[in-house]
Each structure stands twice: as C-alpha cells, then as structure tokens.
Amino acid sequence: MARTPTGAAVLQPEVTQAITDAVLTELAEQGYGRLSMEAVAKRAGVGKSALYRRWRSKQEMITAVIAEFSVNRAGVEDTGSLRGDLRATMQAVLDWLTHPLFSRILPDLVAEGARNPETAESTRTSIGGPRRDLAEVMLRRAIDRGELPPDTDLELALDILAAPIYWRLVVRQAPVEPGYLDRLVEHTLRALGAREKP
C-alpha cells in the first residue's frame, strides 16, 4: 500500500485556495508594492513556509495568483456564431474587469508594470498572452466558418475585442449601461468586416 507523501510534497488544495484568496484581498487593500508575504500568510492562516513551498518569491506568487484568476475568466465560448462568441467573450471581459477585488487590483498592477519592466513582462506573458491565445481560437473558428475574411489581421482584431471595455471601465471609469455590450458587439462585427454564416 502506497504511503501518502509528507512535507513539501503535499500541497493541500484548501490551503492553496486560502492563500489565493488572501493574495487577492491583500492586493486590493494594500497594493502591489505594500503587499508582504507575512500579511498574506497571516490572512490565510498559514506559515510563510506554505507560501514558499508554492512560489519562490512575492512576484512569482502574485503573478501566479492573478494569472490563474484572470485566465480562468477568459470565458471564450463556442456558441456557433461569431456574434454569440463575441457577446459571451465581452461579457466575460466585463465581469473580469468589474470583479470587486480585481477592479481594485488592475490599475495598481498596470502602474507597477509601468515602473517595473519585469512586472510588465510577467503580466504580458502569464495573463495577456494566454487570454489572447484563447480569443484567437475564437477568431480562427470564425474564419473557418466563413464569418471573417481569411486575411483577418488577428493581432489587431484581438486588440479591438477588449480595448473598448478596458478604456471605458479602467481609463474613463464610466458606467456600462444596459445594451452597451450588444452595441459594442455590432460595432466590432463591422470593424472586423464580419459576415453572417453562409
């Protein structure tokens, strides 16, 4: 009968979840620069060693937690049409950016990235990159279905998908009124040169 491993080999999911919740809360309350491993451990009810068994540094911990939180909320569905896919994707972006904790974390994360190129790069590769990869799958499905031209500029299209929502919520700090996403979907379809499925 195999023995259950002990010590560093065991990473209990409930402990990891408590730490994750603590990181997000500390980031929202204290900001990137003031967050400490000690405060996270205390809030999670664990020793600092539990953090270091999972991540080698504060930056690695923050990046991993935010990446998991963000990529899991990419919400790229296959609804069978580009219009439906865009609507679901934009709703997921809106929900991500208006999350009670993340909406307070993101502006600070962007500011930290402007001060620290290493933070900016880790954010790009662990959050922005995977989210764009998922959205690219959606766009390629639309090309395969004949809804987008084969020569669609995917890089530009990916910028168009989330940028208006980010600009409205984070930069302008303006409300999203009822019907906004539906209107945005229609404008985006026109901007991409989309056509209905043949």
Query: What integer value in Å does the Rg equal?
Result: 20 Å
Give the SSE string.
Answer: HHHHHHHHH
CATH class of the largest domain: Mainly Alpha
Q: Structural class of the secondary structure composition?
A: mainly alpha
In DSSP terms, counting alpha (H) and pi (I) runs of 4 or more, how many helices?
9
Unreliable runs: 1-9
End-to-end gap? 60 Å
Mean pLDDT value: 90
Number of domains: 2
> Beta-strand level of the residues, as a percent range?
under 5%
CATH topology of the largest domain: Tetracycline Repressor, domain 2
Residue share in helices? Answer: 55-70%
User: From the structure provided, what is the oligomeric state, counting identical versus distinct chains?
Assistant: single chain
InterPro entries: Homeodomain-like_sf (IPR009057), HTH-type_TetR-like_transc_reg (IPR050109), HTH_TetR (IPR001647), Tet_transcr_reg_TetR-rel_C_sf (IPR036271), TetR_C (IPR011075)
Keywords: DNA-binding, Transcription, Transcription regulation
DNA-binding region: 36-55
Organism: Amycolatopsis melonis
Would you mind describing this structure in some detail?
Residues 13-73 form the HTH tetR-type domain. InterPro entries: Homeodomain-like_sf, HTH-type_TetR-like_transc_reg, HTH_TetR, Tet_transcr_reg_TetR-rel_C_sf, TetR_C. The chain is mainly alpha-helical and 198 residues long. The protein folds into two domains: 10-54, Arc Repressor Mutant, subunit A; 68-191, Tetracycline Repressor, domain 2 (Orthogonal Bundle), CATH 1.10.357.10. Helix content is 67%, strand content 0%. The chain contains nine helices and no strands. It has helices spanning 13-30, 37-44, 48-52, 58-71, 82-97, 102-115, 117-144, 154-171, 180-191. It is elongated, with a radius of gyration of 20 Å.
